[in-house]
């Protein structure tokens, strides 16, 4: 799972200690999966499931179960996904073992019939856990808009990409005392990918050109939208300036992404990759295959962006802090 380093202007654990939490997350993910899988394979998960079933309210249980029945194929976990811990950290960045400050205990609220079903359940709960890490620290907490629980693109990036990728999802930076919302930034070990997503109804078409506005066609309806390339160029410019100031050397790739729509752009967009429904599966499969472990320059790049983020949060209640501590 790609690590959700920053979500909007929410407080993030990664802001507190970027060197610590990525490796802690990988260890926690593997340890709890191995424990859950072993219990399921040994048949000891049943009693635990029955006990938890009594504790979960019926509406919540129904909603949870429906998520898996109706889940989109693009959100499901590939059977080929490697669930063993990989060497994601370069030797130069090795970090000693430490105790987690937020324990992840998956809730098995219905009996999975297959290992794949168990994986999907586990990944779904791990996604919720990621949202906690991306919106709280031991002392502070941010209000999370419920829309992110249903955000299929956010789920796709977190659940479908490797653990050694850092995800900035619409972060808000404070530059010259003014807040600026960016789009999506993926910090890979060897490159940066800036993404502007055109989320649309199926079969919508985006007619692009070098002008300020594109045309979006949805059935018989047409409307003008601001060219996504403008946002991409602005994002690239901001990231480039940050990296230049900090002495960071990583290539920046720019992508206009439409998972379920079509992009028609006569000619070619300079230094911009256009990915629509026809190219998306191949593109997504390609960006998942970075064999490199986490690298020092990757941490430095992510930290340079985190140093400029705007954060909106409030102090957590004393009882919350005590229960987590």
Write the layout of secondary structure elements.
Elements: E1 3-7, H1 13-16, H2 21-41, H3 45-55, H4 58-69, H5 115-133, E2 140-141, H6 152-160, E3 166-169, E4 172-175, E5 178-181, E6 184-187, E7 192-197, E8 205-207, E9 213-218, E10 221-226, H7 228-246, E11 252-257, E12 262-264, E13 273-275, H8 280-287, H9 296-306, E14 314-315, H10 318-324
Strands of the largest sheet, in order across it?
A: 1-3-6-7-11-13
Q: What's the tally of helices?
A: 10
Radius of gyration: 21 Å
The overall strand count is 14
Helix content: 25-40%
The description of the largest β-sheet is: 6 strands, mixed
Question: What shape does the CA trace take?
Answer: globular
Average pLDDT across residues?
80
Low-pLDDT ranges: 47-102
Topology as H/E string?
Answer: EHHHHHEHEEEEEEEEHEEEHHEH
The secondary-structure class comes to alpha/beta
Q: What does the oligomeric state look like here?
A: single chain
Strand residues, percent: 15-25%
CA-to-CA gap between the ends?
Answer: 25 Å
Structural commentary:
This protein is α/β, with parallel strands linked by helices. Helix content is 37%, strand content 18%. The strands form four sheets. Strands 1-3-6-7-11-13 form a six-stranded mixed sheet, sandwiched between helices. A hairpin with a 5-residue loop joins β8 (205-207) and β9 (213-218). α2 (21-41) packs antiparallel against α5 (115-133). The protein starts with a strand and ends with a helix. The relative contact order is 0.17.
């Amino acid at each position: 799972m790609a690590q959700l380093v920053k979500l909007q202007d929410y407080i993030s654990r990664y802001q507190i200690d970027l060197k610590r939490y990525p490796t802690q997350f990988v260890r926690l993910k593997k340890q709890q999966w191995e424990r859950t899988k072993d219990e399921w394979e040994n048949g000891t998960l049943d009693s635990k499931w029955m006990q938890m079933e009594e504790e979960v309210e019926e509406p919540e249980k129904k909603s949870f179960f429906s998520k898996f029945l109706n889940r989109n194929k693009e959100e499901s976990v590939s059977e080929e996904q490697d669930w063993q811990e990989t060497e994601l950290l370069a030797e130069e960045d090795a970090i000693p073992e430490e105790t987690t400050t937020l324990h992840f205990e998956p809730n098995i609220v219905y009996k999975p019939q297959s290992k794949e079903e168990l994986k999907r359940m586990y990944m779904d709960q791990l996604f919720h856990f990621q949202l906690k890490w991306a919106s709280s620290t031991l002392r502070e907490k941010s209000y999370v808009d419920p829309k992110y629980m249903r955000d299929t693109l956010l789920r796709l990036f977190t659940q479908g990409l490797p653990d050694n990728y850092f995800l900035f999802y619409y972060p808000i930076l404070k530059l010259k005392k003014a807040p600026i919302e960016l789009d999506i930034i993926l910090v890979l070990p060897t490159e940066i990918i800036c993404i502007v997503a055109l989320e649309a109804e199926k079969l919508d078409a985006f007619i692009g050109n070098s002008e300020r506005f594109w045309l979006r066609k949805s059935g018989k309806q047409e409307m003008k939208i601001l060219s996504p390339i403008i946002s991409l160029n602005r994002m690239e410019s901001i990231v480039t300036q940050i990296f230049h100031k900090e002495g960071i050397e990583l290539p920046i790739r720019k992508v206009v992404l439409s998972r379920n729509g079509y992009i028609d752009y006569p000619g070619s967009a300079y230094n911009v990759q256009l990915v629509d429904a026809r190219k998306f599966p191949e593109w997504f499969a390609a960006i998942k295959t970075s064999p490199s472990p986490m690298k020092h320059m990757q941490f430095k790049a992510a930290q340079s962006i985190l140093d400029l983020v705007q954060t909106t949060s409030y102090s957590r209640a004393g009882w919350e802090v005590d229960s987590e501590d």
